[in-house]
Amino acid sequence: MHQPTISGSSRIRRTPYSKRVEEAGVKSYSVYNHMLLPTVFDTLENDYHHLKTAVQVWDVSVERQIEIIGPDATKILQMVTPRDISKMKDDQCYYIPMVDKHGLMINDPVAVKLDKNRYWISIADSDVIYYFKGLAEGMGLNVNIFESDVNIISIQGPKSKILIERMFGKEISELKFFRHGKVFFNGKKMIVARSGWSHQMCFEVYVDGSMNGQDMWDKFFSLGNDLDVRAGCPNLIERIESGLLSYGNDVNQTNTPYEAGLGKFLSSGVSEGCLAYDILRTKTEPQRLIKPIEITGEPIKPITYSLQVLNSNGEVVGQITSAAWSPDFKVNVAIGMIDREYWNEKNSLFLNLTKNDKRQIIINDKFWS
Ligand code: THG
Fold it and tell me: Which CATH architecture has domain 287-369?
């Protein structure tokens, strides 16, 4: 059958690296924050093996930076997250659940503290800027909120540290997890953080100014030639193995941070400045929870949509939202949301992959430990 394509327009934004990404042979794209996100270069499995053995350069420009600057910057940020941000250092990044006043997830960004009154909120896929602007205007807060022209390149894989050291020196390559440091590139001050969307060694370069994008991209490739550096992208298999959530897929605006498995960031309590303080402080026991799951049987085709999980009576007791065959674990790995009564169920959870392909599924907490 004829495959239609999607017409380009400024509603689907290209990134400063799209030209290079296409020269590198990107096979498919997704759209995230109204912008192109590469999803496969060679094959999902070859990309995966290369990510876990070498070094990749990722165009993650889609992780847009919402800049919040002004005397009320910390206040507005604390309003939208139950995680305590009061002790955050000026060189620190925090993974934060972002919630509305009902305690439901709006996004799961990385907050980057740049200065006392200045943050970048590095967002997942939802239109967070309008929520912040509405909140600031409704509450009469003294902040300026805008999307910055910052386009992250992530350096990923076990050899990423070598490549980062060649590019920016030893000090940056030895940054601690979720800390950032300053570098100069094309005469502009930029930040590099020890973070990224995989459980391989990784760094994120917050490339400031679209016009500096291709130069940065090209320099990483010229310095990493002998390391077999390749263009890559967030890898479905690796991120399921690592338990990295995809907002909009695994978790959405019907979930609390506890259901999303982010309760660990609230272990010292829900922060008082959060608009959902009362709700999240009292309702800490989730009735359903994100779980690492094994789908038994033959290798499956990748799943990036929601599939019902059934009990032995055929009743719906959860959903699988991401799944793929894992070459290293040698099982099908998945992420799903499972109702509380079934967390300890051993033999009675099922999935209809297709009409004639019913699989047993097993909650396997070992995947993420
Ligand atoms: N980096 C930056 N911005 C981002 C992402 C990123 N914005 C969109 C999206 N990714 C946000 N989602 C996540 C999800 C998980 C993590 C980061 C961003 C992550 N989690 C660690 C883990 O699960 O192992 C824990 C982090 C911690 O302990 O603080 O890294 O990737 N800039």
Answer: Beta Barrel (2.40)
